[in-house]
Design brief:
CATH superfamily of the largest domain: ATP-grasp fold, B domain
Number of helices: 10
Distance between the termini: 10 Å
Number of domains: 3
Oligomer: single chain
Strand content: 15-25%
Largest sheet: 6 strands, antiparallel
Bound molecules: adenosine-5'-diphosphate, magnesium ion
CATH class of the largest domain: Alpha Beta
Radius of gyration: 20 Å
Length: 357
């Protein structure tokens, strides 16, 4: 098969992806005089490093002939002329609230098969409130919420605290800091203001779920959908005094490859009934949102110990090195799939949907 790997590469490294031999590590924010510097600390947190892109290419190359296509302005023309048999899509997209849908929409237009969810599901999941509306319609548990779109709505704002304040359409912990958990109306207003101003997008306010947190890797489709071993996020490994949330600081600053936090436990220690409840919740979520091939779903327990959905990641992070502490590869490893096997299983799930296996 001719497989095209379509990706966005982190700006600090936005030199020719195919020619870079020595990638810098995920957590270093290198600045070069001739390369644009990130406007905020977390501006490119969603995009992949060269190291990840090369690791995915190498994995798929074990069985296929693989080309690299950057998801930039030229992507459409390149895809149209290359006509790969299938695209392995890890592109996070460029601008706007539906950015993750951009490459899949082009591929549908060109009638080229691709792995992962379709434009509709990718857009819905990136807009956390739209995803929650669908989940609520199907009675899939998720925390109560409100959306504040402009500063003029702040005057009448009232929401029970403690609450979480997040940008409406970000991932990779962008815009989620230790201060995102607010305990007073005053903090709430301040945090909403900072999201609206700094991220130029609505703020999602959510009931704070005080219980344990899990992230659940899902692999496959239909009757062959597998829930991989559940990962628990153990907040007691964070520096003392900080909030029990998986913030930008926890993900990218306090956890370094050179000094990894012992923050994940996989498989999570769960009694059978809670394990089944989490798995059922995640299967329902995956199905009602029409996720395809793979996704990673964040779950947290409410004050009654009941699992709730926090968010759905139809393009899960896949840092290749074990020290990078990436959850989807960790869960796959626990299920007996190494990094290369994990990626080829995703590709096979896609090929199978198109009857190309
Ligand atoms: N309603 C909530 N209650 C408790 N913690 C939350 C809630 N929403 C988010 N969090 C915390 O913030 C983290 C990041 O939020 P999430 O919506 O998953 O954003 P991201 O897309 O950046 O991963 C979660 O992993 C969790 O620790
Ligand atoms: Mg998350």
């Amino acid at each position: 098969m001719d497989v095209a790997l379509v990706y966005n590469v982190k700006k600090e490294e936005a030199v020719d992806a195919a020619s870079v031999a020595q990638p810098s590590s995920q957590n270093q924010h290198t600045t070069h005089t001739n390369i644009q510097v990130a406007p905020s600390a977390d501006a490119f947190a969603e995009w992949d490093t060269i190291e990840t892109i090369h690791a995915v290419r190498d994995a798929l190359s074990l069985r296929h002939s693989v080309s690299l296509i950057e998801a930039d302005d030229n992507a459409f023309n390149t895809l149209r002329s290359d006509q790969p048999d299938i695209v392995f899509n890890i592109a996070e997209g460029r601008f706007g609230a539906s950015r993750e849908a951009q490459i899949p929409a082009m591929l549908e237009m060109l009638n080229i098969p691709y792995t992962g969810s379709d434009p509709l599901t990718l857009s819905v999941c990136l807009d956390k409130s739209r995803a929650k509306e669908i989940l609520s319609y199907y009675n899939v548990a998720n925390p109560k919420f409100a959306v504040i779109s402009s500063l003029s709505e702040l005057q009448s704002l009232s929401f029970p605290v403690p609450a979480m304040v997040k940008p409406l359409f970000e991932g990779s912990s962008k815009g989620i800091f230790n201060s995102s958990l607010v305990h007073s109306q005053e903090e709430l207003v301040k945090q909403v203001k900072s999201v609206v101003e700094e991220y130029g997008q609505p703020a999602l306010i959510e009931e704070f779920l005080p219980g344990r947190e899990f992230t659940v890797a899902m692999l496959g489709n239909g009757n062959e959908l597998n829930v991989l071993p559940i990962v628990e996020i153990k907040f007691d490994s964070l520096p003392s005094g900080v909030n029990p949330i998986y913030s930008y600081e926890a993900k990218w600053i306090w956890d370094q490859s050179s000094n990894p936090l012992e923050i994940f436990e996989c498989p999570a220690k769960l009694d059978n009934s809670l394990k089944t409840a989490i798995e059922t919740l995640c299967r329902n979520t995956y199905n009602v949102l029409r996720c395809r091939d793979w996704s990673r779903i964040d779950v947290r327990l409410d004050q009654n110990g009941r699992p709730n959905i926090i968010e759905i990641n139809p393009l899960p992070g896949i840092l290749p090195k074990i020290e990078d502490n990436s959850c989807f590869p960790k869960a796959a490893r626990m299920a007996g799939l190494n990094y290369n096997q994990m990626l080829n299983t995703v590709l096979d799930a896609g090929l199978k949907r198109y009857n190309l296996l």
